[in-house]
Design goal:
alpha/beta, UDP N-Acetylglucosamine Acyltransferase, domain 1, 2 domains, 6-stranded mixed sheet, about 35% helix, elongated
Length: about 220
């Protein structure tokens, strides 16, 4: 695919997924647009072993956009970064088609692996604000990573992951995140656990009250 094709595709992607856009000209102002187009150029150079020039383009892009995509990363079509400041994508990251990242997302390595040391993100995955996906494992297709989550292990397809460390709270979700851009209304496992503890506490209080009545013949608040 030539540069003009990349540009046209990126304009279409941004207009499709960002309701704030009113014209194609506005797309040209977006840091994510500049970062992705420059990544495509740098990646071609990287594949031709022009490593210094590829990294030079990459580092200039970081300074101008706040988005760091290593030119060695492999990124499919339909890639979209919303806002994008603070996004970091490591060298051996593999990203499938129609993936969406929000600002502050890191696709990084643990520092312990060699070779393939960054995650593989399959098709139609959405990774929300501030999420960190760290290590050489796969996030399965059609999955969502909740805002602020830290994911350190494999994620099956059609899953929703939230929390620190990330936990799967929903699986076999057939909705495609590319079309469902809701990164807010995700399950909250911490709140769920608190609600369960409150329920158990109420049940224990009721049992103690009944036991007190049986032993002492009085109804005392526990």
């Amino acid at each position: 695919m030539g540069l003009m094709s990349f540009i046209q595709e990126e304009i279409q992607i941004i207009r499709e997924r960002d309701p704030a856009i009113r014209s194609n000209w506005e797309v040209l102002l977006y840091p994510s647009f500049k970062a992705v187009i420059r990544y495509r150029i740098a990646h071609k150079l990287y594949n031709k072993k022009h490593y210094f020039l590829a990294r030079w383009i990459s580092q200039r892009t970081v300074r101008k956009t706040g988005i760091e995509i290593h030119p060695g990363a492999q990124i499919g079509k339909g890639f979209f970064i919303d806002h994008g400041n603070g996004v970091v994508i490591g060298e051996t990251t593999v990203i499938g088609d129609n993936v969406t990242l929000y600002q502050g997302v890191t696709l990084g390595g643990t520092g312990k692996e060699k070779g393939k040391r960054h995650p593989t993100i399959e098709d139609n995955v959405m990774i929300s604000v501030g999420a960190k996906v760290i290590g050489s494992f796969t996030v399965g297709e059609n999955s969502k990573i909740g805002a602020g989550s830290v994911v350190l292990s494999e994620v099956p397809p059609n899953s929703t992951v939230v929390g620190i460390p990330g936990r799967i709270v929903k699986q076999d979700n057939v909705r495609v995140p590319r079309l469902d851009m809701d990164q807010i209304h995700l399950p909250d496992p911490v709140l769920h656990d608190i609600e369960q503890l409150k329920k158990q506490n109420q049940e224990l209080s009721l049992e103690l009250r009944k036991l007190s009545e049986q032993i002492f013949g009085v109804n005392e608040e526990i």
